[in-house]
Write a structure and sequence with these properties.
160 residues; five-stranded antiparallel sheet; three-stranded antiparallel sheet; 8 strands
Length: 160
């Protein structure tokens, strides 16, 4: 009889089982990593939009000559901050049944030129509270966007 070199069926079976275990482990880790990446990117997008809105609000308030708060009404879903009598920040619904938007309007007489900071889907919520005290505006925005809860409160002082 010749001395044959090679693998037995048992050795092949053991190597296949070990390889399968390694592949399944790598796949599971990859799935968890992908879900984590998607969650972090969604959160980053939401916070990026909110940060942009805050910085825009901050720059407009600091340079404002006049500030006032208008009550909700018409297409405004919340009280909104009026700056220099023509600019506004607030929650706006362009038409009945449309998604609510967090907007900055450079001129409230032309809503078509509004800058949408972000849209809210029908299952998303947001609360906006604005208070005015002298030259300071306290702005609190809370809610849930893309399943990411947020709560931001800040006070911005007018410089002029």
């Amino acid at each position: 009889m010749r001395n044959r070199h090679g693998y037995t069926y048992v050795e092949m079976l053991v190597s296949i089982i070990i390889s399968s275990f390694i592949v399944l482990t790598v796949a599971a880790v990859s799935g968890v990593s992908q879900r984590s990446y998607h969650k972090v990117m969604t959160e980053a997008g939401v916070y990026s939009d909110i940060t942009y809105g805050y910085k825009l609000l901050q720059s407009r308030v600091r340079g404002a000559k006049s500030l006032s708060i208008q009550a909700a009404g018409g297409q405004w879903c919340s009280a909104h901050l009026m700056i220099n009598g023509q600019q506004a920040f607030g929650l706006y619904q362009p038409s009945a049944g449309a998604n609510i938007e967090f907007v900055y309007m450079k001129d409230v007489s032309d809503p078509s030129a509004r800058e949408v900071i972000f849209h809210l889907a029908s299952d998303e919520t947001m609360n906006l509270n604005i208070t005015l005290s002298g030259k300071s505006v306290t702005f609190q925005l809370s809610g849930q966007k893309s399943k990411v809860p947020f709560n931001i409160a800040t006070t911005v002082a007018r410089r002029t």
